[in-house]
Design goal:
By secondary structure, the chain is α+β, with helices and mostly antiparallel strands. The chain is built from nine helices and 18 strands. The strands form five sheets. Strands 1-2-6-3-7-17 form a six-stranded mixed beta sheet, sandwiched between helices.
Length: 367
């Protein structure tokens, strides 16, 4: 596709509203686009991922981007060398670039195969990427599309636990608060213990990436203005560095809860782990990192940075489950993700297409 056509593809994708759980319209648009461009074995899987292939045999390179966004519509516009819209950075530009780069191999003699996967629910609980893991695609390398910046490669993400805690006490009259346990107060006391645990795990000599962090994202309790609260629910997001797996973190949380219950008799506490993603860091000396580094150096010049981010992505789930070498790369400033001023520089978007193309060429040549 020509530059103006690639910009048009991204603009069309941005015009299609696709928050997590509502990707159907974009799913069908991308399936039809893959067919139109000449991809082979184009299909939709049972969760709504759209996939297409170029070439055959091995090695096989997976280019995977997500089509869903956070909620909220933004007007799509092209001005001053930028494309604005929800998902322009996170991460429809990466996905559009992957589709375009892969299409350049159609009709060419090539050794190996490219699979482009347009996945759902990355901003949710990862139904799309978990389906790819279950389907066992048989790939040798995987590149995930997220905004790393045109000169950077993300080689590591922290893990995550989404935790729900329910504290229960006996209700009572607010006129006699000293005679009863207040579920909200006790729940917040428990949160303070969890926060202290995370703070202890954060050593002064360590960066945020190599530290455990906990964030209280929700607290809800109380039945009526004249009743001492008997129920309170906490929602907590725990981020885990490499070396701290989900099982270890859950064991530590359970230990904190048990100690709290011993010191606070008469309180019922239940815990649910609503989602868990293991931390992941790639081998910076792998062939995949080297190929992508060379592709960036050849395309945009300048030094290449290897990033370790405190967020979590589909790369974690896929790489830890399949053991396939994986990295994350894509155009855009991640600080614009989920904001009301989300945009991508068109020149960076076009450059990323060439980076993907060169990186895939190098990886296929290895085979």
């Amino acid at each position: 596709m020509k530059p103006d056509e690639t910009a048009k593809l991204l603009a069309q994708m941005l015009e299609i509203f696709s928050p997590s759980g509502h990707e159907e319209n974009l799913t069908h648009f991308l399936r039809d686009k893959l067919v139109e461009l000449g991809f082979k074995n184009v299909r939709l899987d049972k969760v709504g991922n759209a996939l297409g292939e170029v070439g055959k045999g091995s090695p096989t390179v997976l280019l995977c981007g997500h089509m869903d966004t956070v909620p909220g519509r933004l007007p799509v516009k092209i001005e001053s060398g930028r494309i604005y819209g929800r998902g322009a950075v996170d991460a429809k530009s990466s996905l559009a670039a992957m589709i375009t780069a892969s299409s350049k191999f159609i009709g060419q003699e090539m050794s190996g195969r490219i699979i482009v996967a347009c996945v759902v629910d990355e901003e949710g609980k990862g139904r799309g990427i978990r389906q790819l893991v279950q389907d066992k695609l048989g790939v040798d390398y995987a590149v995930f599309g997220e905004p790393s910046g045109i000169n950077s490669i993300t080689i590591g993400y922290k893990g995550r636990l989404l935790v729900k805690v329910l504290c229960e006490t006996e209700p009572g009259h607010v006129g006699a608060p000293s005679g009863f346990n207040n579920a909200i107060e006790k729940a917040y006391g428990l949160w303070s213990k969890i926060e202290a645990w995370a703070s202890e795990e954060k050593k002064p000599s360590r960066s945020m990436f190599y530290s455990t962090t906990a964030c209280l994202t929700g607290i809800r309790g109380g039945e009526a203005s004249n009743v001492i609260p008997s129920k309170c629910t906490l929602r907590i997001d725990v981020r885990l560095p490499p070396g701290v797996n989900c099982q270890k973190a859950v064991e530590q949380l359970n230990a904190i809860i048990q100690q709290f219950k011993l010191r606070n008799p008469g309180i019922g506490i239940k815990i649910w782990i609503e989602d868990k993603v293991e931390p992941f860091i790639a081998n910076k000396d792998s062939m995949l990192v080297k190929a992508l580094t060379q592709a960036i150096e050849e395309t945009v010049k300048g030094p290449v940075k290897l990033l370790r981010k405190t967020g979590t992505g589909d790369m974690n789930i896929f790489a830890t489950k399949t053991k396939v070498p994986a990295v994350t790369y894509g155009p855009g400033n991640s600080k614009l993700s989920h904001t009301l001023n989300e945009f991508i520089e068109i020149k960076d978007y076009l450059a990323s297409i060439e980076v993907y193309r060169r990186a895939v060429t190098k990886l296929l040549a290895i085979g």
